[in-house]
Amino acid sequence: xxxTSDLKHSPCRPSxxxxxxxxxxxxxxxxxxxxxxxEISLQYCARLKELRDLGAVHGFRILxxxxxxxxxxxxxxxxxxxGTRPPAFNVSATRPPTxxxxxxxxxxxxxxxx
Length: 114
Prior knowledge:
Layout: H1 16-26, E1 32-33, H2 34-40, H3 44-58, E2 60-69, E3 72-81
Antiparallel strand pairs: 1-3, 2-3
Helix pairs in contact: 1-3
């Protein structure tokens, strides 16, 4: 079984995680609407989780803000560096930290031989 986190991304196209990071970093500390992140990946929340895990190690935070406009709920995200931003930071080449296995063991569906 291949671990998808071990697969190399094509050098021609940055990963979704890298594209979301670049969008947030390019906003220079300003809010980025969730709708813009959804254009990159419909699973942008999963990519943000990976980025938040990386940020804990590499010195940046991703903050979110929710705004209520009548019946609409609008989400915004912002990337803030805790110190000085490194000159070139490639999140595609950096793996999120690994966490210990679940306390409950493997929670996937049971498999039976045919």
